[in-house]
Queue: 3 jobs
Job 1
Amino acid sequence: MFRPTKILVPTDMSVHADKAVKQAIDIARQFNAELFLLHVIQDPVQQCTVDYCISEGLVSQLQSELMESARKGIRQQVAKFPEASDLTITTDVKTGVPHDQILQEELERGIDLVVISSLGTTGLAKYLIGSVARHVLLGSTCSVLLVK
């Protein structure tokens, strides 16, 4: 029987991701597994546009504020689920291509189950799988649970 010990939940902090977090919490409680929530910031602050640049100091400050805001958001998402208070939960925020960072996190932490929402914040259509979820499903070396 499959008994996950480390569960990764990529989150964009949407209501769709809340469903995946809830499902992962239920599974983690059942198998006494560790839970890892990961938020990936895709587009960090750009220093220059076509004809205008901002200082490196301001870019650094904005990136720092963006990371802290994301950390706060992921903590607030976890707080929505008081039933998870007795679980071991690790949260992290990274920058980069979401599916690449998710797959890298899976390998680095020895994850044996990824629980991901089939739709993210873009939610183009109810019945289409999101591109991040599709890439994770195709590239994952462990089991992946898609949550509708």
Note: The two ends are 24 Å apart (CA to CA).
Job 2
Amino acid sequence: MKSGTKVHLLTYEDQDLEDYLLGIHTDLEAFQIAFSLNKFCEAKFARIEDILLNNHKAAFCLYEWKNILMDVNTLLFSNKYKQESIQENTNIDTLFDLPLRNEVSLIPEFKQIDFFIKSSHLETIQTLSKSLIPERGITMTYEVPSNKIKNRLNLIFD
């Protein structure tokens, strides 16, 4: 360095942005939930590329809402994927040919939850939760503490 040169140091604070999760129990499909939120909350959820788990050959639907005015990104994603495979004729004594079903969860600690909404803005989660309560087909919604999830890397979709 040259003598007489000024060195300016910038302070850097690592902000651990907390993600808020809303768990949804329902028999509805993801597009029905997204449509309802778009209609009643003036949200703009749009379908984007699915979340893929290669080790289970599973795909989970993913909807995204980018609120540019508030600089908030909110995601709606499914937690369950049902695989069906054709049963081989190993047991010929059965009356019906039923497919074999295997259910895979994106977040195994909460495999009873059908869908999640993830946002870094708590007020957004609370507003969406209030709008889902009167919806027919929604059994229950509640906030899920993100520290209860063992592998938080499952929540990174970028």
Note: Strands lie at 20-26, 46-53, 58-67, 72-78, 80-85, 100-105, 115-119, 138-144.
Job 3
Amino acid sequence: MIVASFIGCSTSKNHNISKLLTPLELQQLLNLNKDVQLIDVRTPQEFKEGHISNATNIDYQSEDFSERIKTLDKAKPVIVYCMSGGRSSKSITLLKTLQFNKLYNLKGGIIRWTSEGFEVKK
């Protein structure tokens, strides 16, 4: 039911919807909606050490970060995560200024994801 409310909100006409997701909510959303864009904004080295399956790495600290996120599909939900939540929150702010409307941030980042027993891919 929780995920249904996120999906329902994400398809409404409201602009710049941004939600914090727990790891469980994120897993449920990924299971129900294969049309999301999962973005890991950590460095390539951090990404190689372990990331959520099907994530795309777009390094927040890279010089071309702004240009790369502009290539994402604004019509599809975007889920962002980092190590603990700092870089992903900044990324969400930038995505909002670029008129992305369906935005989700993993609360506690990959640290919380793994501490709650969810798997990472290496």
Note: Strands lie at 17-21, 37-40, 56-57, 78-81, 102-106.
